[in-house]
Write a structure and sequence with these properties.
It is built from eight helices and 15 strands. It is α/β, with parallel strands linked by helices. The strands form four sheets. Strands 11-10-9-12-8-1-6-7-13 form a nine-stranded mixed beta sheet, with helices on both faces. Strands 2-5 form a two-stranded antiparallel sheet. Strands 3-4 form a two-stranded antiparallel sheet. Strand 3 and strand 4 form a beta hairpin.
Length: about 290
């Protein structure tokens, strides 16, 4: 049995990143890249199937030269082969363009099962796996948490998550694309001999022309989704409680110190920009005579 696992490099979420807000991109020099967690889980599921069936695993990816590091990491975990499309423009491809690229790459190889992570931690579209299946015209299942392969029947029985934590069991013919949920199995730790082997392993590299693609098929030009604006989310401002003026000073102080403000309905909640809220508080304190001079 031959299994293909699609992997992606994503920014390490534990490391702060800088934004180029003028050009709607992330500054590359600020990014530390790691393998996408859900794709790592897909690889672990492939390794589990390999241990049971003796399957051969090929990991594939696309992107600039740095992608090799992630592919070698996969080899150190137990993947047998690594293949990638090397192109700098791919990093700005949306799910449609990425799916088309990976499908073109996968089409050059024999396979019975294609595994992907359900979604990436950066774009979180959850559309690459389904797009690959559409281009290859094969079945696809998403949100998988367990896969059982029957080589005799050439089928897979998949347990997948659905709404409210419920599960659904589906049987589908192979070949198929299955998108795997993250953290469904514990990952092995790569041993030193495996790391050395991975560093010296051959990685098959392709370019766009060898796959029958052009610059118009990747990056921004080949994408169906465009980024209108990139920005950091504004922190939510907490409301300020202004007690009713008809209450005595003691009642107002007790109200501010208590947790009853939401239920009594005798206070005003100030919301908005911190500067505006602060001005209203100062005005209130001045009107009540708490501020002198």
């Amino acid at each position: 049995m031959k299994i293909i696992v699609c992997v992606k490099q994503v920014p390490d979420s534990s490391v702060p990143i800088d934004f180029d807000l003028m050009n709607n991109v992330i500054r590359e020099e600020s990014i530390v890249y790691v393998i996408n967690e859900a794709d790592e889980s897909a690889l672990q599921e492939a390794l589990r199937i390999k241990s049971a069936t003796g399957a051969e695993i090929t990991v594939i990816s696309a992107g600039p030269r740095r992608v090799e590091e992630t592919l070698r990491y996969c080899l150190s975990l137990g993947a047998d082969n690594a293949v990638y499309l090397k192109d700098e423009d791919i990093i700005r491809s949306d799910a449609y363009a990425t799916g088309r690229i990976l499908a073109s790459l996968i089409g050059r190889y024999e396979y019975q099962l294609i595994l992907c992570g359900t979604q990436s931690s950066d774009s979180s579209s959850a559309q690459v796996g389904p797009t690959i299946a559409e281009f290859l015209n094969i079945p696809q299942i998403t949100y998988a948490i367990d896969i059982k392969v029957d080589e005799t029947k050439e089928s897979a029985t998949v347990t997948r998550l659905i709404d409210r934590g419920d599960q659904m069991v589906i049987e589908c013919p192979l070949p198929a694309v299955i998108s795997v949920q993250r953290n469904i199995h514990d990952l092995p730790y790569p041993t030193l001999p495996m790391r050395i082997m991975a560093r010296e392993a051959f990685i098959q590299t392709y370019d766009l022309q060898s796959l029958g693609l052009s610059n118009h098929d990747v990056g921004v030009q080949g994408s169906q989704i465009m980024h209108e604006k990139l920005f950091t989310p504004r922190p939510k401002t907490k409301g300020a409680i202004i007690p009713d003026n008809s209450l005595s000073v003691t009642e107002r102080i007790n109200l501010l110190l208590s947790s009853e403000t939401s239920s009594r309905g005798d206070a005003d909640l100030l919301e908005g920009d911190p500067e505006i809220v602060a001005d209203k508080i100062v005005d209130y304190l001045a009107e009540e005579g708490y501020l002198m001079g």
